[in-house]
């Protein structure tokens, strides 16, 4: 078990998502850098999506998968010649599988300056509870 799965076993990387993965509708895609933190109440997901605006962002949560697609709106000028470029024009694609421990109706997302922050509240069934002893 790798460090990621041992820290947060409820989420794991989908094996189909990798650098250079090809999605039929998106063409070539790139997996963005992301970080997941866990509290008693929720999971916090931070995803770096440089160059993506709100209208180019699509977040879907179905069954046991959270899918984030970010498309950049930048177009290369016709007279522009690239000597060196660290990023590609490919769309971002991140798919995270979970074990239905997230309350899908309460997910909130915010995109500010290319950084997406998603709050994934835990379902009531898995939250820690205090048990009164009689």
TrEMBL record:
UniProt keyword annotations, A-Z: Stress response
Residues making up the signal peptide according to the UniProt record: none
Pfam families the record matches: HSP20
Domain SHSP span(s) in chain numbering: 25-134
Keyword rRNA processing: no
GO BP terms: response to heat
Entry-linked InterPro entries: A-crystallin/Hsp20_dom, HSP20-like_chaperone, HSP21-like
Metal-binding keyword on record: no
Family assignment from sequence similarity: Belongs to the small heat shock protein (HSP20) family.
Protein name from the UniProt record: Hsp20/alpha crystallin family protein
Organism: Synoicihabitans lomoniglobus
